[in-house]
Amino acid sequence: MLEKKLIKYRELMILGIYGVVIGAAVGILDTGFGRVLLFVTELREEYFIPLIIFLPAAGALAVWMYHWDEGTCVKGMGLIFQVGHGEEDRIPLRLIPLTVLSTWITHLFGGSAGREGVAVQIGATLSHWAGLKIKVKNNSRIFLVTGMAAGFSGLFGTPVAACFFALEVLTAGTLEYSALFPAIAASFTASTVSKALGLENFHYALNSNIQIDVLFAVKLMVLGALFGLTGSLFAYGLVSMKNKLGKTFHDPVRKITVVSIFLAILFILLGMGRYSGLGTNLISAGFQGGRIYGWDWIIKLVLTIITIAAGFQGGEVTPLFAIGTSLGAAVAGILGLPLDFVAAMGYAAVFGSATNTLLAPVFIGAEVFGYSYLPYFFVVCSIAYLFNGDRSIYTAQKKLNNLRFFEK
């Protein structure tokens, strides 16, 4: 019995050391990717018209880059989930340069997409590859979750939320406790390394005066339902658009080229690039007194869905933050609540609803806006989770029979 415990603690120690090493490596990679992405964003904002014209050609190039891969890496996050569920047994290292380069292309030429998909794929790919050399029980899933936590944390600087995101996203309604210790080690290490290297992260000290009463509690529940349905709408729209475009265009190069022509026109007509890129401009406007229109959230939602469904790489999380922030800013006055408070609730809850996660959005809200508001994030994100219809932007996510008010 004692010998078995010693073996278990030895394995745990090995996993912890492994988590630190992977966290450091992923933190460095995230920093490099993130810094170039910021530079690319600045270029697009300065030369929007000359660059947006080449969006169709850029999309064709990005898709062509994946052609020689025989369809493995083009799955992107889907491949990560398949490996996590044991449906695939390897993640090629070439996924890292492919997803990084294609995401830079998306943002340089004006597509509306995120960045977390790249960070998570970087972490998962590197961790999975390194983990093949370490023999522990359930090593494939453990190392995958560890890398996902490191990737998310290194980019966003939210180690607790990143850890819970990796633990709960593969199968909705469960936590991968076997990966808890290395995920914690990797997550905090990646965040520390990227911060030390100067990667910018969004944090806002929320300072809203809240009067807690029955009416306030009702308003929180209304916000939770609204944000939950919005996240569900995004997930449903993304899956539907992918299916529709897939049936319409059998050639992925033709699909992204044709759709990009219409996208380029829309990006020009609708705000001259206001809805291109990550959506950090909308997030900044929501919390720094900028102009937010009542329609910002829905336009960002639609254009992001079309961009990702067309075949552009990047991710959805940062646009989801922008959608939640702008929607929150739009309804704050109607509910008579502080604008930055409602925008913060939307920032976290729409992300949680669209990804079908609960703990990750609660803690990302607390880490970004302040732990004193954690009870409010818990209430709003919980209601949003119940109202999301068990939908997710990750179609390969497995689901238990969770309680929902609205089923698919």
Give me the secondary-structure topology.
Layout: H1 2-46, H2 48-52, H3 55-65, H4 77-84, H5 95-108, H6 116-131, H7 139-156, H8 159-169, E1 171-172, H9 180-196, H10 214-248, H11 252-269, H12 280-287, H13 296-310, H14 317-335, H15 339-355, H16 359-369, H17 374-386, E2 398-399
Parallel strand pairs: 1-2
Helix pairs in contact: 1-5, 1-6, 1-7, 1-9, 3-5, 3-11, 5-6, 6-7, 7-8, 7-9, 8-9, 8-16, 10-13, 10-14, 10-15, 10-17, 11-13, 12-14, 13-14, 14-15, 15-16, 15-17, 16-17
Describe this structure in words.
The chain has 408 residues and is an all-alpha fold. Helix content is 69%, strand content 1%. It has 17 helices and 2 strands. Strands 1-2 form a two-stranded parallel ribbon. α10 crosses α17 (374-386). It is globular. The mean pLDDT is 92.
State the order of secondary-structure elements, H for helix, E for strand.
HHHHHHHHEHHHHHHHHHE
Distance between the termini: 48 Å
- Helix fraction by DSSP (H/I, runs of at least 4): 55-70%
Strand order of the largest sheet: 1-2
Outline, from the CA principal axes?
globular
Structural class, by secondary structure, is mainly alpha
**Uncertain segments:** none
- What is the arithmetic mean of pLDDT? 92
Largest sheet: 2 strands, parallel
Number of strands: 2
In DSSP terms (H or I, runs of 4 or more residues), the helix count works out at 17
